[in-house]
Amino acid sequence: MSTTEPTWGERYAASLMNTFGPPKLVLVRGEGAHVWDADGQEYVDLLGGIAVNALGHGHPALVDAVTSQLQTLGHVSNFFTTVPQVELAEKLLDLLGVGAGGGKVFFTNSGTEANEAAFKLTRRTGRTHVVVAEGSFHGRTMGALALTSKEAYRAPFEPLPGDVTFVPYGDADALAAAVTDETAAVLLEPVQGEAGVVVPPEGYLAAARAVADEHGALLWLDEVQSGMGRTGRWFAHTQPESGVTPDVVTVAKGLGGGFPIGACIGIGAAGELLQPGNHGTTFGGNPVACAAALAVVRTIEDEDLLEHATVLGQKLRDGLAADPRVTEVRGEGLLIGLDLSAGVSAEVVAAAQEAGFIINNPTPHRIRLAPPLVLTEDDVNAFLASWPGILDSAMGEQAMGEQAMGEQA
Ligand SMILES: *Cc1c(COP(=O)(O)O)cnc(C)c1O
Fold it and tell me: Residues lining ligand 1, CB < 6 A?
């Protein structure tokens, strides 16, 4: 009998909703910053589950923490608390520099849920108006989507919760003009991730802090992608010189290192806005997720991964920028975006995969890297050695010529 077995791709298409398009690979195993597909092919993972796998794949500290917590106490309802939950809340407040008592944490399972909690928190000011940035991404649930700018994501689901004003990202004057005494909150990503790693001008967050203060509005920073060491600092907004103290910070992605967990953190008085009955969750803050996040934070500290991310990120940016087909490289630490001289980012991603590297294309001209913080120097050297060849096979001379002609037209 010679019936052909359906492939994983065919089985996926037959059984999963088509929200993501066809999967690029069927991945079966990971170790450090490397993953393997079902055919045994090895890849250097320079996307890290989109800034999630901070400790890479299979890190013993994360595996041990999850395993022993699940063996000890896997879930309780939120009528109770657990040791990892309290310890993680205290740890996050310490990392934000406010300490226990200087703020309050609400745990969730994802980034969009952290933002839903924060959105509801802003309503408790008695105001409804929120000012957000063009190019923003805050999640896919209805509330977070109302605060997300991309038309293609929003349009099919309107009407969304209203009273939202979009302003150009990085333009402090436009922000100042949009915020009024009716504004509940200004919501910004300190670095815009899904837009392709867009870094605002120096002083932008401080200007946002000032305008929010002037009108009694909350400053809410979405650090879901940029937080938890991704930029070489615990949070992208804690700049050595131009740092600000926000009222609300949301985190998720890297927090659990791959175990689902997010958090909405209210600093100072903002931590008191949600009161009993205002919000809830069944799974948010469960002890296994909190133990995972504690292991991530402690490992970043023990292995000095903030410094490691800073050094390797600089090396990656310098190497990527050396190719003339790369017109700009942005980002900090291991959150890196680059612009290509032609709109062939999908071809570049495909050529990189062919060469054994997983990267991502948030827009047609832009490539994003968000590798595990445990990426090694050998991984970086291997990618930089392959980079010109990847661009050759994706772009070649022809693509450059077409782009030049397109720009003249
Ligand atoms: C990914 C992301 C979210 C949404 O997180 P999910 O866990 O996918 O819900 C929100 N904000 C930012 C900045 C993100 O990058």
Answer: 110-112, 115, 137-139, 189, 193-194, 222, 224-225, 252-253
CATH architecture of the domain formed by 8-58+304-408: Alpha-Beta Complex (3.90)
Q: What is the dihedral of CA 43, 48, 54, 56, to 10 degrees?
A: -20
Looking at the CA of residue 110, tell me the nearest atom of ligand 1.
7
CATH code for the part of the protein at 73-302: 3.40.640.10
Name the residue ranges covered by the structural domains of the chain.
8-58+304-408, 73-302
Query: Is 247 one of the catalytic residues?
Result: no
Q: For 349-388, how does the pLDDT look when each residue is reduced to its tens digit (9 = 90+)? A: 999 999 999 999 999 999 999 999 999 999 999 999 999 9
Q: Is 163 annotated in the active site?
A: no
Encoding tokens for residue 301? 């500290």
pLDDT 10s digits, 68-117? 999 999 999 999 999 999 999 999 999 999 999 999 999 999 999 999 99
